[in-house]
Amino acid sequence: MVQLSRFPRYRLGHFPTPLEPMHRLTAQLRERYSQVPNLWIKRDDCTGLATGGNKTRKLEFLLGAALAEDADLLITQGATQSNHARQTAAAAALCGLDCKLLLERRQVRDEEYEHSGNVLLDGILGAEITERFPAGTDMAAAMERVAEQARAQGKRPYVIPGGGSNPTGALGYVGCAQELDAAEVPVDWIVHGTGSAGTQAGLLAGLHAMGSGARVLGVSVRQPEQHQIGAVHALGARTAELLGCRDTLPREAVHVDDRWVGGGYGVPTESMVDAVRLLARTEGILLDPVYAGKGFAGLLGGIAEGRFGAGEHVVFLHTGGSAALFGYRETFS
Ligand SMILES: *Cc1c(COP(=O)(O)O)cnc(C)c1O
Question: Is the CB of residue 193 below 6 angstroms from any atom belonging to ligand 1?
């Protein structure tokens, strides 16, 4: 039994998100490959919070915790085109809190990357972008300094780690695991892009706690396989503990594929561009260039390799992020 109602939560999104079949995509892939599973899409791009995405689920629990301690300021960090930063800005607006965002230049692109897409939305939502930090900055330490200054000015800051990925945030994906467990189709695999690890960790903790047989494949958008498995497993185990699970999450439950990262975090790849165009042109659904595009490329690669059985039900978890497309005009034109 998983009881999420024990944890403070602030409602930010529309849940449960839809689970939809991808008929046209499945039919098209069956013309090309001999073994294609039944393909579904879980629409976490439709959580509703200022263009939506997976951080909405995490923020419901993080905001619950922040409000329980009477915070009046949210501080978080991310890459320049961070979807997490944008959803945190929206959550702060909705809860009447101030918001400071620390953005790390993990890569240097063009003017649109620096100012359009999520960055434009951060400003509209009323968040303050404190400064732009060079790649490799210790962002956790930088957030602590900003929090210290705020406290000195009488504010009550609540610091949210990058991607909202701690056990409290990961509870949001325990909720998603519950939705998928209650779905009418028996889910064999869940596939998604994995970065700061909270999404996969929460899914795995939830599925483990419920005794579900569904497996999760994280397509890494940044770290090599063993590093990512370690991060997901560590956070998943802590999340399962927070849930009150008696037995520990086995490391073998963590599946990661790191072959779709290409040149690095946020660096476009041909397979990502093809994946974004394919889903747009078969199902009318927009992915993003940094996470869901590479995650979907990983799913397509797995299908080409015959990784999934023809009768299996495979759910692509769409984690959102299409606002970042506007930071990548060059890549798609
Ligand atoms: C943050 C993000 C992810 C990765 O989720 P993690 O919990 O950080 O692993 C995937 N897709 C999108 C669009 C994101 O913004």
Answer: yes
- How far, in Å, is the centroid of ligand 1 from the Cα of 193? 6
pLDDT at 39 over 80: yes
- Residue 166's alpha-carbon distances to 93, 160, 173, 201, 274, in angstroms, are 22, 9, 11, 9, 33
In ligand 1, which atom is closest to the CA atom of 194? 9
Q: Does domain 55-163 have CATH number 3.90.70.10?
A: no
Give this prediction's pTM.
Answer: 0.98
Residue 116 has pLDDT above 90, yes or no: yes
Q: Please give the mean pLDDT across all residues of the chain.
A: 97
* 196 catalytically annotated: no
**CATH assignment of 4-53+165-332, given 3.40.50.1100, 3.20.20.140, 3.30.70.20, 3.10.270.10?**
3.40.50.1100
Q: Which of 82, 165, 196, 322 is catalytic?
A: 82
